[in-house]
Design a protein that fits this description.
The protein is of the alpha+beta class and 337 residues long. It folds into two domains: 193 residues, no CATH class; 101 residues, no CATH class. The protein is built from nine helices and 16 strands. The N terminus is likely disordered.
């Protein structure tokens, strides 16, 4: 399964915020008749179907639904509010929310589930490696439910036991572990996805499962807005600077430190020319960014990551910068050498 998933409807176009508390109340009428399908998600964010014994199906609702509804009902009674990551930090009485299109790896997984389910393989230990599984997704459905609903959880390695080297305790006696693997589903509330919204009960779990740091992404989004205000950019059709940096950890980290107001576009272009770094412009004078390479050069220039040695004339890209602390004492010597 190496294909690239196609687009899903979870985009910002036509976005309507869901009411998670109304959703929870509405779910009660279907709660006993829900169909719950489970998918394992690997490190490449590709899902696998699971075959479940009938006896396990009775455990799905308590494991995935009951605790989550209890949390939401209790929160509604106490005046819990829902806020986006960019609006507030995590705190008591606040449920944080983001959108699917902002979390590229979640978007990729849901693309498979929503549009390519017929291509999803059934997980089996002979063909697939349990060590590469990082999460589990439960899909909730009912004939009268119009919304797409998923509950996602991280599967810690400590919750998985493989091979036949373990022991089991049965009737007071230890016997050999005789299965290919055993799995314990986490009981805590982690991620709830309703249509285009991801309700985040644990930022840590969101980062562990989908490699999305909400705080970093929120800061990067604000920096992108500042860059768009102070610089004229020409981007590929249908792309924005925000979509270009998605999934690029190095660029996102650098954006945390950049102050786009400290340098003007003309200064940036002059500096690039002095260093021999080519930044192309269109007829309107906008900086052309058509691919990852050009994006990297632009972000590096903004972050002042290039220098020319006054000693040797060599030009360098600085991987890590540490401000030089000058000791004014007469007999000072450089430290940390």
């Amino acid at each position: 399964m190496e294909q690239t998933p196609t687009d899903i409807t979870a985009t910002k176009d036509g976005y309507q915020e869901t009411d998670v508390f109304a959703w929870a109340n509405n779910l009660l009428q279907y709660k006993e008749e829900l169909k719950i399908d489970l998918f394992l998600v690997n490190k490449n964010y590709i899902p696998y179907r699971t075959n479940l014994d009938k006896e396990l199906r009775a455990q799905l609702e308590p494991l995935f639904v009951d605790g989550l509804l209890e949390y939401l009902f209790d929160g509604a009674e106490k005046g819990m509010v829902v806020r986006g990551f960019e609006d507030a930090e995590s705190e008591e009485g606040v449920l944080q929310r983001t959108q699917v299109f902002k979390v590229p790896n979640a978007y990729a997984t849901l693309s498979w589930l929503n549009t390519q389910e017929h291509e999803i393989e059934v997980f089996n230990d002979a063909d697939h490696d349990f060590k590469r599984i990082k999460g589990i997704v439960a899909r909730l459905s009912h004939p009268n439910m119009k919304q797409k609903v998923y509950i996602a959880k991280v599967l810690p390695r400590s919750n998985v036991m493989q091979g036949r080297t373990g022991w089991m305790l049965r009737s007071g006696k230890f016997i050999p572990f005789d299965a290919d693997a055993s799995l314990r589903i986490p009981s805590d509330n982690q991620l709830l996805i309703i249509d285009q919204d991801i309700y985040v009960f644990s930022q840590t779990r969101l980062k562990q499962l989908f490699a999305y740091d909400a705080k970093e992404a929120s800061i990067a989004e604000k920096k992108v807005a500042e860059i768009n205000t102070h610089f004229k950019l020409s981007l590929p059709e249908g792309q924005t600077l925000q979509t270009l940096i998605e999934g690029k950890k190095s660029a996102i980290k650098k954006l945390q430190k950049i102050d786009p107001t400290r340098i003007k576009q003309e200064q940036l272009l002059e500096h690039a020319e002095e260093l021999g770094i080519e930044l192309m412009q269109d007829d309107a004078g906008a900086i052309i960014i058509m691919d990852d390479k050009e994006l990297g050069k632009f972000v590096n220039l903004l972050n002042d990551d290039y220098m020319e040695s006054s000693l040797t004339g060599e030009r360098y890209e600085i991987i890590r910068k540490r401000p030089l602390k000058i000791d004014d004492s007469a007999d000072s010597t450089p430290s940390d050498l």
